[in-house]
Amino acid sequence: MNKCIIGLQWGDEGKGKIVDILAEKSDIVVRYGGGANAGHTVVVGNDKFALHLLPSGSIRPDVKCLITNGVVLDPEVILGEIDKLAKANISLKNRLLISENAHVVLDYHKKEDQLREEALGKNKIGTTIRGIGPCYCDKVGRSFAIRMADFLDLESLKSKLQAIVEYKNKVFSAIYNAAPMSSDEIFDKCKLYAKKLKPFITDTTEFLHKSLTEGKSILFEGAQGSLLDLDHGTFPFVTSSNSSSLGMSAGCGVPAKYVDEFIGVIKAYTTRVGAGPFPSEQDNDTGQYIRDRGHEYGTTTGRPRRCGWFDAVAVAYSITIGGIDSVALLHLDTLSGLKELNICRAYNIEGKETTFFPSNINKLAKAAPVYETMQGWDEEITEAETFDDLPANAKDYVCKIEEIIGKPITMIGVGPKRSQTIFR
Ligand code: GDP
Ligand code: IMO
Ligand code: MG
After folding, report:
1. Same domain as 284, residue 190
2. Does residue 96 lie within any of the structural domains?
3. Does the predicted model carry a pTM greater than 0.90?
């Protein structure tokens, strides 16, 4: 069985936890898109790992971990992660494979990300400043791109970097009045990165297709959420890649027909980091209650996440565009103690009710949520092991979401740990 895990909201749904659980029965886990803007958390016993680039299967010692063509890879971040896991006695030797075609995020990308956001002022996107947009721009523009394969030919890398940094410095100075960067310094860092990463660089597409022929079980790990998809999300408040399931094939070179199950991941409520419309947002005591109980602060940037009611219109849209088969619902435990819970089942846009999510933000900004109100529950549910262990109102809440989104909820999270998961 090959499975693909996709966030169905604005990211941080708990994909890391679900990937870690399913990795137990997988031979290979594949990160195919995004970069170090992602922050995927895996909690095993008392150990917590926050991974930005390494696939969340890394924690399982027998799983092969792939980073494929669609990823924009920051060498500094991945080397830090490899070191961190080594300190926890988890080795990636002979099981981490990085595509020679993955693009490389360098210091000038991060600088450009920051300068652009500063220049936008109150109109900023609220990016993670991880250089994601600028690196994907260079990829699409082609002339100034560095890929992992460039680390295998340092002489040619040196002259490429000279030309790129010269160009970037002109832009930094002319547009942002910013200090120039040194191509020599960046090259010196790259030499070090190349030395350490060389053993991992390979043709991941060939490896994946060989593995498919051998009947290996592959788990594809989506990053971000479907509503941050560059083409189908809430543009321009999105990331720079196709973060819905539509980006899977392009990102790793495996057609979607090889995936047996697309599993969507949702929280029992909604969160968003960064700017952009969020119809069911609760910028009030309820939002703060959810933020406090759910520890809703960014895994990558530490920013407080915006919190709101579960938006079934948004999730149903992500299911539709993504061909999602089943759903994992996390953070049900976070909602304990709320007297009533609202589920957004439709939007009212200028007097007209719709259940189809308008990704055009001019329309979305006018969407007033239409709520279905459910009774809450007081009990803590972090020790529930089966669906029947849950209070009746919690079960009703799950069933109502299932009914509105039209897909089975097969896993329920009642806490951050691997073990705090109910299978239905
Ligand atoms: P990802 O980006 O989708 O992998 O999600 P993040 O790791 O950024 O954020 C999810 C957060 O929720 C992490 O801190 C997880 O440890 C935590 N988490 C995951 N599932 C649950 C759950 O069911 N209940 C609670 N309370 N926390 C959870
Ligand atoms: P995971 O994989 C939540 C958001 C940023 C910003 C927008 C653009 O952990 O779910 P970028 O740095 O990508 O140019 O920022 O996208 N964003 C995320 N939000 N979770 C993520 O990843 C995100 N990756 C990017 O906050 O609004
Ligand atoms: Mg995250």
Report:
1. no
2. no
3. yes
Whether the Cβ atoms of residue 329 and residue 409 lie closer than 8 Å to each other: yes
How much of the chain is in helix, strand and coil states, percent to nearest 5? 40, 25, 40
- What's the CA gap between 334 and 397, in Å, rounded? 13
Task: Spell out a b/e string for 288-327, using b for 16 or more CB atoms within 10 Å of the CB, else e.
Answer: ebbbebbebebbbbeeebbbbbbbbbbbbbbbebbebbbb
Nearest residue by C-alpha to atom 17 in ligand 1? 416
Q: Can you tell me which residue has the tokens 């705090």?
A: 420
**199, 218, 241 - which closes a domain:** 199
Mean pLDDT by 10 residues, the chain (424 residues): 98 97 97 98 93 96 97 98 96 97 98 97 96 98 97 97 98 96 98 98 98 98 98 98 98 98 98 96 98 93 94 98 98 98 98 97 97 98 98 98 98 96 96
What is the DSSP secondary structure assignment for residue 417, as one 8-state letter?
Answer: B
Phi/psi of residue 161, nearest 5 degrees: -65, -35
CB within 8 Å of 65: residues ≥ 6 apart: 28, 29, 31, 54, 55, 57, 58, 92, 95, 96, 97
321 and 355: one domain?
Answer: yes
**12 in active site:** yes
Of the listed ligands, the closest to the CA of 293 is: 1
The boundaries of the domain holding residue 287 are 3-91+204-423
Same domain, 357 and 386: yes
Angle, helices 392-405 vs 312-322, to 10°: value is: 50
User: Catalytic pick from 20, 40, 52, 232?
Assistant: 40
Together in a domain, 192 and 286: no
**Is 211 within a domain?**
yes
CATH classification at residue 41: 3.90.170.10
Other beta carbons within 10 Å of 211? 20
Enter the tokens of residue 287. Answer: 């939002």
Among 175, 199, 223, the domain-final residue is 199
What is the DSSP-derived secondary structure letter of residue 152?
Answer: G
Q: How many domains does the chain have?
A: 2
Could you tell which of 42, 43, 330, 334 is best to mutate to test the pocket of ligand 1, judged by most ligand atoms within 8 Å of the CB? 330
